[in-house]
Amino acid sequence: KHHHLPPLWYQRANMASSPPDTIKAQFLDAFNTPYNLRSVPLPKLTSPYDLLVRVDAASYCHTDAVLASGQMAPFPPSFPHISCHEFAGTVVSLPSHESCSDTKVPKYPIGTRLGIPGRAYHPCTTCAECLSSPSPSSLSSLDYDPPGYSVYCPHALNLGISAPGGFAQYALADSRQVAPLPDEISAVDGAALMCAGLTIYAALKKCGLREGQRVGIMGCGGGLGHLGVIFAVKMGLRVVGVENSEGGLEVARGVVKKLNKGKEEKGEVRIVDARVEGWEVVKDSLGREDGKTEKGEMGVHAVVTLPESQAAFEYGMGLLRNRGKCVVVSFPEKGFNFSARDVVFRDVQIVGSLVGSNRMLREMLAFAAEHKIRPRVRTFPLGKLNELVEEYHKGGGGKLVVDMHLEE
Fold first, then answer.
1. Long-range contacts of 110-113 (CB under 8 A, 24+ apart)
2. Tens digit of pLDDT at every position of the chain (408 positions)
3. Which residues of 16-84 form beta strands (DSSP E)?
4. Helical (H) or strand (E) element with 284
5. Count of C-beta atoms within a 10 Å radius of residue 349
6. How far apart are the C-alpha atoms of 403 and 84, rounded to whole Å?
7. CA atoms within 13 A on the CB side of 185
8. Which end of the chain is more exposed for a tag (fewer CB within 10 A), N or C?
């Protein structure tokens, strides 16, 4: 579903009006409890890098659920807490001219539409991460920002996790962590791309594949997974998407049908119901399709593991051909067990992928705009965030987003 921008009169009226003294925000007051909607004072700018944005859309991420359940200690650092680390908004206030004399401060005029990821709010600028630069062996220099800023700074705050996030009418952002939204991308779609889009795009990049090679996506119907299918196809990769829920399979198959302009599946994408087909069956089928007879040559060149499931991890590892790569995005509390035989005798690499740099974020947005990539979303007003959470736990797939323009 494509969400159009608010009408031009709405944008102009809201840019012209001053922010209110008090705003509404959804608060997490304790672990494993519903959110509570309350009025609080408007956030204040505290740094020359700060921007005050009117939040237009705020997307719900799996990390929000993990945080709310108490599995991300020591985060949040205190209660009450405003969650959401993937949102989109419009600049409404800037620091004073005197505090913005630094030429390194990015300039975004009032009225600029921005995508806002959680990382990295107020990085230290001096640690090894902030001063790092790409190594000659790195897959892409896009995973690094210029020295002085890093999304991986251990001292930076993370909006929605260690600092207030986007489940509020207005929020603060660091001008170094944001990216302008292309005109082709709405706030609702842009919010969903700020974590889910960036994370899966960076993970696919980390696979290091060439056009025409195969990639497996475990959990292909979820928020990240369905976007991964779309991104991978647009990158020229052949996709094996794996799911084990009816909702996820419905989303994934719907995505494929749209990619194929209403036709059923064809060679570029294969959606597998893991409840019906084991990895051995799928791998043999891929081998026959590719004309391979050696077991080590059958399967996918890389796999991205998204579910927090040992079974999903093992399924993905099974799909890999020899010298393949498993990119792990999920982080279950107890971790994953892996086979030493896979990494020693089959030379399979296991690497992690968290998010991506600000430069990677901009590339992802440009790619999404160019290829008309839109996430599969369902929207809710801010006051119905708890209903959104209930829907999330039903496992219907796709992304769930708070659209601030919806009536309560």
1. 110/15, 111/11, 111/15, 112/180, 113/56, 113/88, 113/89, 113/180, 113/181, 113/187, 113/190
2. 444 444 443 343 344 458 999 999 999 999 999 999 999 999 999 999 999 999 999 999 989 999 999 999 899 999 999 999 999 999 999 987 555 555 677 889 999 999 999 999 999 999 999 998 766 555 556 678 888 899 999 999 999 999 999 999 999 999 999 999 999 999 999 999 999 999 999 999 999 999 999 999 999 998 899 999 999 999 999 999 999 999 899 999 999 988 877 444 445 899 999 999 999 999 999 999 999 999 999 999 999 999 999 999 999 999 999 999 999 998 887 889 999 999 999 999 999 998 889 999 999 999 999 999 999 999 999 999 999 999 999 888 889 999 999 987
3. 22-28, 35-41, 50-60
4. helix 279-290
5. 14
6. 13
7. 32
8. C
- Radius of gyration, CA atoms only, the chain: 21
* C-alpha–C-alpha distance, residues 352 and 350, integer Å: 7
Contact 252, 225 (CB under 8 A): yes
Report the distance separating Cα 204 and Cα 72, nearest Å: 25
SS3 of residue 279 by DSSP: helix
Q: Which of 298, 289, 305, 340 lies closest to 320 in space, CA to CA?
A: 298
Pair 86, 143: CB distance under 8 Å: no
Q: Is 394 exposed, middle or buried (0-12, 13-18, 19+ CB in 10 A)?
A: exposed
DSSP 3-state of 390: helix
Residue 215: enclosing H or E segment and its boundaries?
strand 214-218
Return the structure tokens found at 341: 């035989």
Q: Quick check: helix, strand or coil at residue 255?
A: helix
DSSP element (H, E) containing 239 = strand 238-243
DSSP code, position 325: E
What are the residue ranges of helices labelled H in 17-111? 62-68
Angle 275-234-242 from CA coordinates, rounded to 5°: 5
361 CB-contact burial (10 Å; exposed 0-12 / middle 13-18 / buried 19+)? buried
CB 76 within 8 Å of CB 64? no
> Which two structure tokens, joined as six digits, stand for 127?
């640690």
